[in-house]
Write a structure and sequence with these properties.
By secondary structure, the chain is an alpha/beta fold. The protein has seven helices and nine strands. The chain has two domains: about 160 residues, SPOUT methyltransferase, trefoil knot domain (Alpha/beta knot, 3-Layer(aba) Sandwich), CATH 3.40.1280.10; about 45 residues, no CATH class. Strand 2, helix 2 and strand 3 form a beta-alpha-beta unit. It has a seven-stranded parallel β-sheet, with helices on both faces. A two-stranded antiparallel sheet has the order 8-9.
Length: about 210
């Protein structure tokens, strides 16, 4: 899993609040190799749902923001292009964007859609062409469709063929995923993580012996 993680691909959920949509989006993010995603909440009730989703996410980090400006600042500092999904006239077909570039995909609330502030702060506005009577897809479905287009493009460029996490992040996450209880205890104590061997087992040198 860690070998396939894409640190330069993420999602920003702009006021998405329904538990089943939050869970579905998190699952889709994990499926395409996203390691960290972001949620913006303007209301306490939404924050509660997002916080619960964050706690339920075992394999990803969900960062919570009080406003879209904060979320945009975070991804911009990482050099990501910001792409908002909207049904507004003039938006690009979602397949026309190059997702092999560092990208943050912004999706909006179930009823209100993407906020005007998010649209104004984005580099691109994209849409999913609809040929039936429905004007749009469910937010979690739309997110999955766009993310797997990003996955397709990245796979074509062999971006899943080698580790893209920096070595230190890789080692830290490997320890936390393979030793969750111990890593939690060490974090609480402010103690460093021990070294791992090639199989992910704890390896502490005592003289010439390895203790696992």
């Amino acid at each position: 899993m860690l070998l396939h993680r894409q640190p330069d691909l993420t999602v920003i959920m702009d006021n998405v609040n329904k538990a089943h949509n939050l869970s579905a989006i998190i699952r889709s993010c994990d499926g395409v190799g996203i390691n960290e995603l972001h949620a913006v909440s303007y209301r306490k009730s939404i924050y509660t749902e997002q916080n619960a989703a964050a706690g339920a996410s075992k394999w990803l980090t969900l960062s919570l923001h009080s406003d879209i400006t904060s979320a945009f600042r975070k991804v911009s500092e990482c050099g990501m292009q910001i792409v908002v999904a909207t049904g507004k006239e003039g938006a690009l077909d979602f397949r026309e964007v190059d997702y092999t570039l560092p990208t943050a995909l912004v999706v909006g609330a179930e009823w209100d859609g993407i906020s005007e502030k998010a649209i104004q702060g984005a580099d691109y506005a994209i849409t999913l062409p609809m040929l039936g009577m429905a004007e749009s897809l469910n937010v979690s479905v739309a997110t999955a469709v766009i993310l797997f287009e990003a996955q397709r493009q990245r796979a074509a460029k062999k971006m899943y063929s080698q580790a893209r996490l920096d070595p230190e992040s890789f080692r830290q996450m490997l320890f936390e995923y393979t030793h969750p209880r111990l890593s939690r205890e060490l974090r609480q104590k402010g103690a460093p993580y021990p070294q791992l061997d090639a199989q992910g087992a704890i390896c502490t040198l005592q003289g010439s012996e390895s203790v696992r």
